[in-house]
Amino acid sequence: MNNKFDALKDDDSGDHDQNEENSTQKDGEKEKMERDRSQSSSKRKVEQFWRFYSHMVRPGDLTGHSDFHLFKEGIKPMWEDDANKNGGKWIIRLRKGLASRCWENLILAMLGEQFMVGEEICGAVVSVRFQEDIISIWNKTASDQATTARIRDTLRRVLNLPPNTIMEYKTHTDSIKMPGRLGPQRLLFQNLWKPRLNVP
């Protein structure tokens, strides 16, 4: 019996049941600690972002053509970026006056990882226009219909959209084929969303 665990395998005295129970209890405590640490990290991440965000102008307060981009670090808000080129975006057109609330709900949902699609979310854009405002959320894989459907459903829930709201999904390859659709832009911020920010 060179291995210490071999003795436990051959012992039928019942003592190993208590050892297994203690081990299971320790595993449960370890899992709880991991969950708590993850929730705490997520909370700090949102709080840190909120300190920055609370000093920004809201989309509804802007005039003219303006775009806010919020993308994961290292991903450019361009269709041609490696992370975006095989993806697409959900587009929602909003009447004036709703952009600020919807944008805030969307970015907090992204930071809080409410979409539950792993690394699939690349970023989001709010476009302020004269007649309407447009919100879109970009993902990596347009061909994954289950993931795009989950993003759509979560987006509908997070933005509290009525069931009859029209949501359009457009692949980036289709967007590339239609040049000249952007018009003038003012890039206010990008690459600020760091989904796994380690804050001490």
TrEMBL record:
Entry keyword set: Initiation factor, Protein biosynthesis, RNA-binding
Pfam families cross-referenced by the UniProt entry: IF4E (PF01652)
Domain of life (superkingdom): Eukaryota
Record PROSITE patterns: IF4E
KW Protein biosynthesis (keyword) present: yes
Keyword Cytoplasm belongs to the record: no
GO molecular function: RNA 7-methylguanosine cap binding; translation initiation factor activity
Cited InterPro entries: TIF_eIF4e-like (IPR023398), TIF_eIF_4E (IPR001040), TIF_eIF_4E_CS (IPR019770)
Residue segments, region Disordered: 1-42
GO annotation, cellular component aspect: eukaryotic translation initiation factor 4F complex
Record-stated family: Belongs to the eukaryotic initiation factor 4E family.
Protein name, per record: Eukaryotic translation initiation factor 4E type 2 isoform X7
Source species: Delphinapterus leucas
